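Quick one: structure for this chain?
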Amino acid sequence: MTFNDKAVLFLATGCYAGKIPFAPGTFGTIAAVPLVWVLTWLHPALTAFYAVGFILLAVYIADRAESLLGQKDPGCIVIDEMAGFLVAMTVVPITMLSVAAGFLIFRFFDIIKLPPIRYFETRFNGGAGIVLDDIAAGLFTAVVLKILYFFELF
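Got it. Here's what it folds into:
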C-alpha cells in the first residue's frame, strides 16, 4: 500500500475514528467537530466555499477508499458523516449548544434516513453514493437547526 493510499484511508476514516468497532458513524461525526469550529473563523461569505470544497474532497476520498477496501460503502468510511455534519452546522452560529443539538439531530436523520435521504444512498454509487445521503441528512438538520435558532431555542 502506497503512502497516498494510507493517506486516503486516514482521511476516509476520520483520522481512524471510523475504525472504532462500534458506532463508527457517531465517532465520525465527533471527528467533524474541529472542522465545524473552523466556521467560527471564516467570513460568512466563505462558509459555502469551505463546505462545498469539503464535500468534493469527501466524494473523492470516499470513492478511493471504497476501491482500496474492496467493499461497497464500508462502515469505517466516515468522511461522509463529517461532510454532512459540516453542512448541518453552516446555518447557525457555532456554540457548544448548537453543536450538541446539531450532533443529536444529524445522527437522528443519518440513522433513520427519512425520504429522500435513503434515495441518495441507493441511487448513486461510489463516493457520491457514500456522501450524498449524509449531505441530505445534513440539509434536514440545517433546516431544523435554523427553525430552533429562529425561535431562540438556543
